[in-house]
Amino acid sequence: MSKIQVYFGNGKGKSLAALGYAVKKICEGKQVILVSFLKGKLYDNQEIIGRLEPELKVLSFESGNKNYEDLTKEEKEEQNIKIINALNYVRKVMDTSECDLLILDEVLGLVDMEVISESQLYELLLYPSNELEIMLTGRKIPKSIAQIAENVYEIESCSEKEN
Question: Which domains does the chain have, with CATH numbers?
Protein backbone atom coordinates (compact mmCIF):
# COMPACT_ATOMS: atom_id res chain seq x y z
CA MET A 1 0.00 0.00 0.00
CA SER A 2 1.06 3.58 -0.62
CA LYS A 3 2.42 5.86 2.07
CA ILE A 4 -0.45 8.21 2.96
CA GLN A 5 -0.12 11.58 4.68
CA VAL A 6 -2.97 13.90 5.62
CA TYR A 7 -3.14 17.62 6.38
CA PHE A 8 -6.55 18.49 7.79
CA GLY A 9 -8.26 21.05 9.99
CA ASN A 10 -9.95 24.42 9.95
CA GLY A 11 -6.73 26.42 9.86
CA LYS A 12 -5.26 27.93 6.73
CA GLY A 13 -2.11 26.53 5.16
CA LYS A 14 -2.93 22.89 4.39
CA SER A 15 -2.45 23.33 0.65
CA LEU A 16 0.69 25.39 1.20
CA ALA A 17 2.08 22.71 3.51
CA ALA A 18 1.44 20.14 0.78
CA LEU A 19 3.15 22.40 -1.78
CA GLY A 20 6.12 22.82 0.55
CA TYR A 21 6.43 19.05 0.80
CA ALA A 22 6.16 18.87 -3.00
CA VAL A 23 9.08 21.29 -3.36
CA LYS A 24 11.13 19.14 -0.97
CA LYS A 25 10.41 16.07 -3.11
CA ILE A 26 11.27 17.95 -6.32
CA CYS A 27 14.62 18.90 -4.77
CA GLU A 28 15.18 15.16 -4.21
CA GLY A 29 14.62 14.56 -7.94
CA LYS A 30 11.06 13.25 -7.59
CA GLN A 31 8.04 13.82 -9.83
CA VAL A 32 4.92 15.33 -8.24
CA ILE A 33 1.33 15.58 -9.45
CA LEU A 34 -1.14 17.79 -7.59
CA VAL A 35 -4.83 17.34 -8.35
CA SER A 36 -7.01 20.09 -6.93
CA PHE A 37 -10.66 19.58 -5.98
CA LEU A 38 -13.44 21.99 -4.99
CA LYS A 39 -11.41 25.12 -5.66
CA GLY A 40 -12.63 27.27 -8.50
CA LYS A 41 -9.40 29.23 -8.55
CA LEU A 42 -6.31 27.13 -8.06
CA TYR A 43 -3.71 29.19 -6.24
CA ASP A 44 -2.91 32.87 -5.95
CA ASN A 45 0.69 32.23 -6.97
CA GLN A 46 -0.07 30.04 -9.99
CA GLU A 47 2.68 31.70 -12.08
CA ILE A 48 5.35 30.83 -9.53
CA ILE A 49 4.01 27.28 -9.13
CA GLY A 50 4.14 26.94 -12.92
CA ARG A 51 7.91 27.45 -12.79
CA LEU A 52 8.22 24.08 -11.06
CA GLU A 53 7.02 22.26 -14.18
CA PRO A 54 7.68 19.64 -15.46
CA GLU A 55 8.61 18.17 -12.07
CA LEU A 56 5.31 19.43 -10.62
CA LYS A 57 2.11 19.02 -12.61
CA VAL A 58 -0.85 20.92 -11.18
CA LEU A 59 -4.25 19.83 -12.45
CA SER A 60 -7.73 21.08 -11.77
CA PHE A 61 -10.85 19.66 -13.32
CA GLU A 62 -12.94 22.63 -12.14
CA SER A 63 -15.01 24.83 -14.37
CA GLY A 64 -15.03 28.54 -13.67
CA ASN A 65 -13.70 30.44 -10.70
CA LYS A 66 -16.41 29.65 -8.14
CA ASN A 67 -15.85 27.41 -5.16
CA TYR A 68 -17.98 24.25 -5.18
CA GLU A 69 -20.31 25.42 -2.41
CA ASP A 70 -21.13 28.57 -4.43
CA LEU A 71 -22.32 26.64 -7.51
CA THR A 72 -25.96 26.25 -8.51
CA LYS A 73 -27.53 22.78 -8.43
CA GLU A 74 -27.02 22.40 -12.19
CA GLU A 75 -23.42 23.59 -11.98
CA LYS A 76 -22.76 21.11 -9.15
CA GLU A 77 -24.14 18.24 -11.25
CA GLU A 78 -21.82 19.25 -14.09
CA GLN A 79 -18.92 19.63 -11.67
CA ASN A 80 -19.58 16.20 -10.13
CA ILE A 81 -18.97 14.63 -13.55
CA LYS A 82 -15.65 16.47 -13.76
CA ILE A 83 -14.75 15.29 -10.25
CA ILE A 84 -15.40 11.66 -11.26
CA ASN A 85 -13.15 12.22 -14.29
CA ALA A 86 -10.49 13.63 -11.97
CA LEU A 87 -10.71 10.57 -9.72
CA ASN A 88 -10.41 8.33 -12.79
CA TYR A 89 -7.27 10.29 -13.71
CA VAL A 90 -5.95 9.73 -10.19
CA ARG A 91 -6.50 5.99 -10.59
CA LYS A 92 -4.60 6.11 -13.91
CA VAL A 93 -1.70 7.91 -12.22
CA MET A 94 -1.65 5.19 -9.57
CA ASP A 95 -1.71 2.48 -12.27
CA THR A 96 1.13 3.93 -14.31
CA SER A 97 3.38 5.12 -11.46
CA GLU A 98 3.52 8.45 -13.29
CA CYS A 99 4.83 10.26 -10.22
CA ASP A 100 6.46 9.72 -6.85
CA LEU A 101 4.13 12.01 -4.88
CA LEU A 102 0.44 12.47 -5.61
CA ILE A 103 -1.26 15.35 -3.79
CA LEU A 104 -5.04 15.27 -3.68
CA ASP A 105 -5.79 18.80 -2.53
CA GLU A 106 -9.18 19.18 -0.81
CA VAL A 107 -10.13 15.58 -1.63
CA LEU A 108 -11.41 15.16 1.94
CA GLY A 109 -13.96 17.85 1.14
CA LEU A 110 -15.48 15.56 -1.48
CA VAL A 111 -16.54 13.24 1.34
CA ASP A 112 -17.60 16.19 3.51
CA MET A 113 -19.87 17.55 0.77
CA GLU A 114 -21.12 14.05 -0.09
CA VAL A 115 -19.81 14.17 -3.65
CA ILE A 116 -18.22 10.78 -3.01
CA SER A 117 -18.60 8.40 -0.10
CA GLU A 118 -15.99 7.71 2.54
CA SER A 119 -15.78 4.12 1.26
CA GLN A 120 -15.08 5.32 -2.30
CA LEU A 121 -12.12 7.39 -1.10
CA TYR A 122 -10.93 4.57 1.16
CA GLU A 123 -11.03 2.06 -1.72
CA LEU A 124 -9.13 4.46 -3.97
CA LEU A 125 -6.39 4.82 -1.36
CA LEU A 126 -6.08 1.06 -0.89
CA TYR A 127 -5.28 0.74 -4.56
CA PRO A 128 -1.93 -1.05 -4.78
CA SER A 129 1.08 1.16 -5.43
CA ASN A 130 4.08 0.42 -3.25
CA GLU A 131 6.36 3.36 -4.01
CA LEU A 132 3.78 6.12 -4.38
CA GLU A 133 3.35 8.71 -1.64
CA ILE A 134 -0.14 10.19 -1.41
CA MET A 135 -0.96 13.39 0.41
CA LEU A 136 -4.54 14.41 1.18
CA THR A 137 -5.86 17.75 2.38
CA GLY A 138 -9.22 18.93 3.66
CA ARG A 139 -11.05 20.17 6.72
CA LYS A 140 -12.29 16.87 8.20
CA ILE A 141 -10.69 13.44 8.11
CA PRO A 142 -12.91 10.34 8.08
CA LYS A 143 -11.92 7.69 10.65
CA SER A 144 -11.23 5.05 8.00
CA ILE A 145 -8.74 7.37 6.27
CA ALA A 146 -7.06 8.28 9.56
CA GLN A 147 -6.57 4.57 10.27
CA ILE A 148 -4.66 3.90 7.04
CA ALA A 149 -2.64 7.13 7.04
CA GLU A 150 0.99 6.91 8.06
CA ASN A 151 1.08 10.57 9.16
CA VAL A 152 -1.82 12.85 10.07
CA TYR A 153 -1.28 16.55 10.74
CA GLU A 154 -4.03 18.77 12.12
CA ILE A 155 -3.75 22.42 11.15
CA GLU A 156 -5.72 24.92 13.16
CA SER A 157 -5.41 28.65 13.61
CA CYS A 158 -4.06 30.10 16.84
CA SER A 159 -7.34 31.94 17.44
CA GLU A 160 -9.18 28.58 17.37
CA LYS A 161 -6.96 27.24 20.15
CA GLU A 162 -7.69 30.28 22.34
CA ASN A 163 -11.48 29.78 22.11
Answer: 3-162 (3.40.50.300)
